[in-house]
């Protein structure tokens, strides 16, 4: 039944491979189950309710992706968008979190409309092939950078912004986490080179189990006040009744005292970031999976974007910030995932995590870091698809800037913006206007207005 439903033979995959890919994807993005409640909790929302809302939105999003698009893409509450929700809209602008949820709900409805009208699909198809490949490379560097941060290997440096962790004479928790993450990366690489199936997932579990061993032997000492929590899962269950604290609250609001214009700006901000983050993720993961056609197009793009929009709308009703397609989907693709069965597997694990939340939230960030670092390498390999010959500089330079911007500006959408702007400007000024579509002109103009006005 699964073979026929998801056309596994046509995609050259098996049920076992898809299930393994889904499990791998879930394990690399499970951190959101701990991070999202923490961030939205700062906005005054109940953390347990946010946890449940995040799970439910992810289940709906992944299920829609599985049956509507048959793609191995997973969805959950977007990082960055949740910080914008809590720290800018609620704490900065003073909006109640109920109104912020309303803004997310409106954003989802607008995206559904744009998807039905094929506007998002047209934009996807208008982006040049070189920029699409650059997005994949840039995301690879971006998630590798995130992995190094989660491992604690990459740290703040007041002089150079970032630097490498300096090991002190005494090996403390932060050094243990960094060493375990690097060891996990080594194990993952060796297993992958030796063609061991599930090498990325094995690397995650190896790093986590090694951390638990360090805790049981006293090398790692839990210190919640410093951000070092117990690595051992706790035997407890979730209070499901608390979902009522956020469910449907986007429809209970009082706009008196708040500017409608400012509310529209908030909605547009959510729209902008979600649109291009999702677009960038879909391009990057699809390019890595070899799902783009000869023109660099994705046949299922309309269904993919519709699933994303539906998940965002339902997520707002449940009580979480914008739901978006995750770059961690690339870990499942690297494991062999090629169909919606991978996404459906992720949905199952999100559903299961509602019952055993402490088990999944106990997975420490440094344990998923090796997967992010190694998959970053796999995605970076797409740089070979970009020609850097002098006759192709008009396309290669914008692609280079797109790659550079994503990790340095910590944003997929900023990388796309710079890539589009410079592609249009360089080709126009060099007398190659025939390479620029009207949609690319419109996108470049919108990006420029965004930087000038906002």
Overview of this protein structure:
This protein has helices spanning 2-5, 15-29, 32-41, 47-69, 81-90, 97-116, 119-126, 129-151, 173-193, 199-216, 260-289, 301-318, 329-335, 340-353, 357-361, 365-380, 393-409, 412-429, 438-453, and strands at 75-77, 154-157, 161-164, 323-325. The strands form 2 sheets. The chain has a two-stranded antiparallel ribbon. Strands 2-3 form a two-stranded antiparallel ribbon. Helix 6 crosses helix 11 and helix 8 runs antiparallel to helix 16. The longest helix is centred in the middle third of the chain and has 30 residues, at 260-289. With 454 residues, the protein is mainly alpha-helical. A hairpin with a 3-residue loop joins strand 2 and strand 3 (161-164). The chain is built from 19 helices and 4 strands. It is globular, with a radius of gyration of 22 Å.
Number of strands: 4
Regions with little confidence, pLDDT below 50 for 5+ residues = none
Average pLDDT metric: 87
H and E order: HHHHEHHHHEEHHHHEHHHHHHH
Our estimate of the beta-strand percent is: under 5%
Can you tell me the overall shape? globular
The SS-based structural class is mainly alpha
Largest sheet: 2 strands, antiparallel
Strands ordered across the widest β-sheet: 1-4
The tally of helices reads 19
Q: What is the alpha-carbon Rg in Å?
A: 22 Å
Distance between the first and last residues' Cα? 51 Å
Q: What helical percentage do the residues reach? A: 55-70%
């Amino acid at each position: 039944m699964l073979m026929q439903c998801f056309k596994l033979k046509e995609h050259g995959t098996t049920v076992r491979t898809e299930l393994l890919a889904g499990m791998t994807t879930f394990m690399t993005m499970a951190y959101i189950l701990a991070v999202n409640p923490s961030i939205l909790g700062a906005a005054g929302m109940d953390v347990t309710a946010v946890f449940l809302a995040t799970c439910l939105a992810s289940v709906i999003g992944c299920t829609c992706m599985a049956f509507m698009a048959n793609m191995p893409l997973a969805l959950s509450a977007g990082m960055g968008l949740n910080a914008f929700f809590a720290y800018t809209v609620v704490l900065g602008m003073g909006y109640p979190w109920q109104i912020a949820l309303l803004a997310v709900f409106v954003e989802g409805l607008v995206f559904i409309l744009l998807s039905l009208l094929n506007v998002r699909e047209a934009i996807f198809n208008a982006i040049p092939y070189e920029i699409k490949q650059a997005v994949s490379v840039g995301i690879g560097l971006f998630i590798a950078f995130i992995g190094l941060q989660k491992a604690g290997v990459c740290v703040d440096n007041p002089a150079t912004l970032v630097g490498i962790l300096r090991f002190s004479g005494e090996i403390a928790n932060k050094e243990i986490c960094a060493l375990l993450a690097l060891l996990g990366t080594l194990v993952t690489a060796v297993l992958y080179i030796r063609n061991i199936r599930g090498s990325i997932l094995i690397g995650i579990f190896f790093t986590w189990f090694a951390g638990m061993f360090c805790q049981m032997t006293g090398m790692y000492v839990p210190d919640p006040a410093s951000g070092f929590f117990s690595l051992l899962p706790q035997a407890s269950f979730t209070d499901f009744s608390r979902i009522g604290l956020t469910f449907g609250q986007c429809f209970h609001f009082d706009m008196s005292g708040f500017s409608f214009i400012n509310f529209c700006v908030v909605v547009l901000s959510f729209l902008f970031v979600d649109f291009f983050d999702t677009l960038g993720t879909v391009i990057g993961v699809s390019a890595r999976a070899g799902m783009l056609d000869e023109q660099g197009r994705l046949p299922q793009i309309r269904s993919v974007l519709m699933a994303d929009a539906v998940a965002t709308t339902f997520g707002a009703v449940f009580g979480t910030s914008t739901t978006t397609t995750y770059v961690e989907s690339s870990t499942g693709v690297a494991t062999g995932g090629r169909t919606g069965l991978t996404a459906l597997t992720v949905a199952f694990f999100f559903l299961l995590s509602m019952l055993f939340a402490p088990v999944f939230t106990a997975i420490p960030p440094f344990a998923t870091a090796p997967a992010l670092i190694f998959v970053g390498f796999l995605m970076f390999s797409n740089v070979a698809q970009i020609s850097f010959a002098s006759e192709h500089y008009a396309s290669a330079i914008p692609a280079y800037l797109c790659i550079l911007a994503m990790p340095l500006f910590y944003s997929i959408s900023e990388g796309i913006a710079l890539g589009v702007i410079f592609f249009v400007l360089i080709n126009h000024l060099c007398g190659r206007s025939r390479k620029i579509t009207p949609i690319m002109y419109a996108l470049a103009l919108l990006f420029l207005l965004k930087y000038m006005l906002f």
